[in-house]
Amino acid sequence: MSELAETTQFLAAREPWSRLTPTEVAALARRAVATYVRRGTVILAAGSPNSLMHVIRSGAVEIRDADGALVDHDEEGQCFGQSSILEDRPSRFSFTATEDTLLWSFDADVVRELVRDPGVLRFFTESRLGDTTRQASEDGPVLQVAVSDMITRPPVTIDVDCTVGDAAVVMHNQRISAVLVTRGEKLVGILTDRDLRRVVAMAQSGTTPLAETMTSGPYTVGKDALALDVLLGLVEHRIHHLPVMDGDRVIGMVTSGDLMRLERSSPLYLVGDLARQHDVAGLASVMGRLPRLVSRLLRQDATAEDISRIISRTTDALWQRLAELGEQALGSPPVPYCWVALGSLARQEQALGSDQDHAFILDDRAAPEHDAYFAELAEYLTSALVQCGFSRCDGDVMATNPRWRQPLGQWRRIFTDWLSTPTPEAVLHSSIFFDLRPIHGEHTLAAELQRRVLAVAPQSTRFLGHLAKHANDIAVPIGFWRGFVLEKHGTQRDRLDVKKGGINPIVDVARLYALKWGLPQVGTRARLAAAAEHGAEVENLLNAHEFLGYTRLRHQGMQIAAGEDPDNFIAPGELSEFERRTLRDAFTFVGRSQRALTVSFQTQFM
After folding, report:
1. From residue 143, how far is each of 84, 148, 245, 551 by CA, in Å?
2. Which CATH class is domain 141-263?
3. Mind telling me which SMART domains this protein's record contains (predicted)?
4. Which of 71, 136, 459, 597 would you label with 413, given CA atoms 20 to 30 Å apart?
5. Which CATH class, in words, describes the domain spanning 3-130?
6. What pLDDT shows up at residue 301?
7. What is the pTM of this model?
8. Phi (first) and psi of residue 53, to 5 degrees
């Protein structure tokens, strides 16, 4: 086999190259430059400019952050260096060969060609480099989680008398990267993706016995061990999969990926701290840690979807604890009620600096004399949220407004009126009230209201048409020649409002789809995914939503680091050329989705 053919075959079997056609992979493989580095060589230092993406052909590379803390290990087939090229900034990490290593290096033009494919761009965007180790001093409790709590599924096993081919089928069907090999109930080995690659490289048959290819007597950990023990075991033994034992019985397996997910779930500890607070001042103090958490998640390249969900779920915990404190202070409610979040919190898409949008749904047994209690409770909750960093809604969409604390029957009539008589006010309220999620109290009240709305909305074609026209009227900040349309006046002059002109229209389109087809999902991405099952073209919108959300969060992270209040206005000069180009593409996709509404809903007649 020629060197070019070997390079092409190697790349085509691995992400993200496997997303390309064989012809595309072969063309790019011609541009690979082989480089051999000795163990201990610093390939790329943190803070250094970079113009190459490297693929590890053989060997291993250690990744450390700017403070020298270990972040991860990359092995055969993995690539690094592309992030600093795409972000047009110095590398945030140092990459050092821990073995004699052969690299295939590609220049920046190859990287830019690769990301023209949406699948490759998504792969690079969602790749994870962060690890618990770099924040061990700040987030030590993360490493104290019991291993038994990290197991996400029962063990997947295969008998030792089976073949490599049998194991490959099991791994494929179960979508796992390793399978546990047993004799009866006894663990005798483990077979990983890396073992399968070795089988292929050595041209061994699929009928090869497992006993000849598996790792016998694998390193294991007991069910009472901690995440710290997992981390130390993975690093010390240079492995990625760790069987968990209860005595002689295997009960599951944890991986390096589980540790990374555990790190991202560290807000659980922040949530735990919220639950332990006994006054609003304590809750406000805990919430003050949230911006630092977001900044860390951004450094770790978490997705905008992940970060927004973490912010939202942490806010959920705050609201729930506030409701408990409010009821302790005022006494039990006279009738059941449900405190519901509206807007971005309902969609679990909060960013930093959000205001508060909420309402009360009361049981139909509520009487006029009960309103004094709920009015006082609403004021307690709203004032407490202000103290915790959530400003009051400028549009007064809060339970403190008597209009937005009503019995269930009255809420049904309100929504029915909006759907049957699409006044400008009804269309305006749809952007908030049709995104509704219960937070505290009798959740069945919110569920009943949602069932009513989803049953009526698909038949409300006139309302949907007006809603589509409203979504289509939002100006996307991109000009005829793909130039940015910037704010012309005020303190935000020469900046882009990525929320108003980019994120909000996507949210509007997703909401419209949900109402059109009576979809129960509330989150934008979940709505778009459900709409795809009805034939809607959503792939570009999903990518645009992620990129716009991440760009906004990163901008807010920089503002917080600079001691500024977070907002949604971004100066194009803050972005690299790649980011500006991708931002233009995102706005273009949003504009196309808006124009599609004109055809689908005949908005020209509204």
Report:
1. 29, 13, 19, 30
2. alpha beta
3. CBS (SM00116)
4. 597
5. mainly beta
6. 66
7. 0.59
8. -105, 135
